[in-house]
Amino acid sequence: LPFFTKGYNELGANMPKAITTLSLLKRNGYHSSFIMSTDAGFDNENLFIKTQGVDQLISKTNFNDFPAAHNSYWGYPDLDLMKKAVGFYAKLPVNKPFVSYIQTISMHTPYKVPEMDQYYAQMEEQMKKLGFDEAQKREHRSYKDQYATILYTDNAIRHLFQEFVKLPAYRNTIFIITGDHRLPEIPMSTKIDRYHVPLIIYSPMLKRNASVRSVSSHLDIAPSIVKFLQANYKLNAPKLVTWVGTGLDTVRQFRNIHRYPLKQTISDLTDYVSGEYFLSGQTLFSIRDNFALEPFQDDAKQSQLIGEFNQYRSQNNQVSQSLKLIPDSLYKKFKP
């Protein structure tokens, strides 16, 4: 969805009608769920989930079958979350498709999880495997809490797969794993590295594996999912959509065929990517493989990106003022 002024969810009760993968798949007969271990009221997530007609929301309030001692400032840790999710999936009807989101939290301040010492030890073992010298080890130990929580969440995801594979739904399920941003405490190599996150798509139905170095973003996931389901499973979807992405690029070598505004905070919209160029404020960079940046002097290219970015801002301001994304008639046809 567009960013609006401070994010779609910040609009609260004024969120405009929108069609997302959650609502669209429910309209096509899927059971929909959103599973988190935190307060669903944070960032108005509960309001968004309600607008999408989600069948079932699991949040911090119904985690009372897990140890109270595990309940931190944010909520229950990710391993508890995955156990809760698997238990929920095991009870779903086997003859009905479902779409479900799991939102993790442990890789977040204050970076404390159960059995931290176990993950500190795993971190030490991993540094040894990578051949770090003592100076490198000392540097990385400065962020040992962050690395420990990464290993903890990795273990939680492993548990999800180990248990989900036992369910009948496993053989027909597509898993998508990604993150919203880098951990800011760990030093970044470049400014754009803040936005560099993994995107893993897995299914037992895959015919081959591939590592893709071309650039895509979260904005591209929904259009690709919908097009795939339309082509293979006759999903009924509108031609007019509310997302702003164009689809995932699956070319293996590095390239970028997309144009993206990048929003680091709810009020900060100063970064823009177009092709293999990155505009940060008024400074232009060329983007290399693995998101390396080099200052780039080209007045024509800089003017091009500034013009594209201004056009996006203008469109974003327009929907922010009108609070309209699609015609009411289309929403009524596809609402959940």
Helix content: 25-40%
Give the integer mean of the pLDDT values.
94
CATH class: Alpha Beta
DSSP E strands, number? 10
How many domains would you count in the coordinates? 1
Biggest beta-sheet profile: 5 strands, antiparallel
Structure description:
The protein has nine helices and ten strands. The longest helix has 24 residues, at 299-322. 23% of the residues are buried. The strands form three sheets. It has a five-stranded antiparallel β-sheet, covered by helices on one side. Strands 2-1-3 form a three-stranded parallel β-sheet, with helices on both faces. The chain has a two-stranded antiparallel sheet with strand order 4-5. β8 (277-280) and β9 form a beta hairpin. By secondary structure, it is an alpha+beta fold. The protein has a single domain (8-255), classed as Alkaline Phosphatase, subunit A.
Task: List the topology elements.
Blueprint: H1 21-27, E1 31-36, H2 45-51, E2 56-58, H3 78-90, E3 98-103, H4 116-129, H5 134-141, H6 144-164, E4 175-178, E5 199-202, H7 221-233, E6 259-262, E7 271-274, E8 277-280, E9 283-287, E10 293-295, H8 299-322, H9 328-334
Parallel strand pairs: 1-2, 1-3
Antiparallel strand pairs: 4-5, 6-7, 7-8, 8-9, 9-10
